[in-house]
TrEMBL record:
Species per Swiss-Prot/TrEMBL record: Streptomyces daliensis
InterPro entries reported in the protein's UniProt record: DhaM (IPR039643), DhaM_N (IPR012844), PTS_EIIA_man-typ (IPR004701), PTS_EIIA_man-typ_sf (IPR036662)
Assembly and oligomerization: Homodimer. The dihydroxyacetone kinase complex is composed of a homodimer of DhaM, a homodimer of DhaK and the subunit DhaL.
Boundaries of every PTS EIIA type-4 domain copy: 18-147
UniProt cross-references to PROSITE patterns, sorted A to Z: PTS_EIIA_TYPE_4 (PS51096)
Protein name: phosphoenolpyruvate--glycerone phosphotransferase
Enzyme Commission no: 2.7.1.121
Reactions that this protein is recorded to catalyse: dihydroxyacetone + phosphoenolpyruvate = dihydroxyacetone phosphate + pyruvate
């Protein structure tokens, strides 16, 4: 996980708040590994990204509590982009968003592939892009063809 207050220079010369990124997977290991991979591919040691995977007891599944805590950790006031792996992860994030007070203000569920989208989102966020641009960069990963 990163220190989201570090990053692009703001208009006043101080650190500009960065969009935080939460990667939700049914597996803690997958979420944390994709977060490390995305930061590494972006060449950003302390990127504003963290994983929220599995259940609190380390099992497979999704946890509203872990997702909320992860979003709070990466929130610096510029918004939070949430990328998910499948099924119940989508439903859990949508339920948290519907509650209205379980996630930081300006948190958005982003429709993007988890791995490629995470890499694109981290590059954009680390460069100081706003939430709309981070979400767009992640979503564009659907266009990456491998064959």
């Amino acid at each position: 996980m990163s220190e989201p207050e570090k990053g692009a220079e703001g208009a006043e010369g101080g650190a500009k708040p960065l969009v935080g990124i939460v990667l939700v997977s049914h597996s803690r290991e997958v979420a944390d590994s994709v977060a490390r991979l995305a930061a590494g591919l972006a060449g950003v040691h302390e990127a504003p990204v963290t994983g929220a995977g599995g259940t609190p007891d380390g099992g497979l599944g999704t946890s509203a509590e872990l997702i909320s805590a992860a979003a709070e950790r990466v929130d610096s006031g510029a918004g939070v982009a949430v990328l998910v792996d499948l099924g119940s992860a989508v439903l859990t994030v949508k339920a948290l968003l519907a509650e209205g007070d379980e996630l930081p203000a300006h948190t958005r569920l982003v429709d993007a592939p988890l791995v490629e989208g995470a890499a694109s989102a981290v590059v954009a966020a680390s460069g100081g892009a706003d939430l709309d641009a981070v979400a767009a960069a992640a979503g564009e990963a659907y266009d990456y063809r491998k064959g």
